Amino acid sequence: MTPATVGLALLLLGVLLLISKLVRVKWKLTQRLYLPASIIGGAIALLLGPDVLGRLMGLLADRGIAEGFAERAAEGGLFGVDVMTVWSSLPGLLISVVFAGLLLGKRMPRMREAVDLAGPNLAFGISVASGQYVIGLLLALLVLVPVFNVPVISGALIEIGFLGGHGTAAGLGDTFAEVGWAEGQDLALGMATVGLLSGIIVGIVLINWGARRGKASVIDAGSKGTANEQAGLVEREKRSSGSVMTIHPSSMDPLTLHFGLVAVAVLIGQLLLMGLQAVEQAL
């Protein structure tokens, strides 16, 4: 894998995101469901990748049709094997960037304030996670393990995908590999996508139902976003600045400064991880 391949993979991601935004602007169904561009782009990549287009090209190759292109597409879809390899490595790396930047620029609350803010959310999260673990493990013990012969750890996929999401699924890639079930990460990412889509679609249905029944306190049955809001666009008169300049560009571009801060946060997290691993090995 060459640096040029890595660069091409990143450029293709940008193109997919741009196309997905255009789809959101033009396709009414995605607007009504409020699907984010990342989900739309992922769906496009899935269709053009080895799992959909690749399989179709494989069928053509077996019949001797367009053998050269069909055989290459069967392995890596429209994007190629090398690009798919780069993409498969990105989630485990970029999730560190996501978590490293969560609290940057935020005022740390006092302990009492943190407890008041996080306490109810923590209690709710533990309750939901416990239920998802129980249901998942029961399904694993009663159905998945005896019928499909998959590891019992598959019972954790519901919690990882629904409560955790794509970030958790990506971060647990090494853990799945250590327990001898590397395929679990792919299933967890798929479960996270199902959870996100079902949450959006079911959520929209419940919001509409609540608004029509008068059970919503924020919106009513007649509430409807503008065409620009549904398309994910901001009206010109409502646009605001996206950032505040803290340093002069003549010394350093603000984006470069932000990159440095995120890099320091990631490195601190890596050092903490190494320290915890050393303590674990010493015990």
TrEMBL record:
The secretion signal range is none
Q: Which residues cross the membrane?
A: 6-23, 35-53, 86-105, 117-145, 187-207, 255-279
Q: Name one GO cellular component term.
A: membrane
Query: Which keywords belong to this entry?
Result: Membrane, Transmembrane, Transmembrane helix
Q: What is this protein called?
A: ESS family glutamate:Na+ symporter
Which GO BP terms apply?
L-glutamate transmembrane transport
MF-aspect GO terms:
glutamate:sodium symporter activity
Origin species, per record, is: Nocardiopsis aegyptia
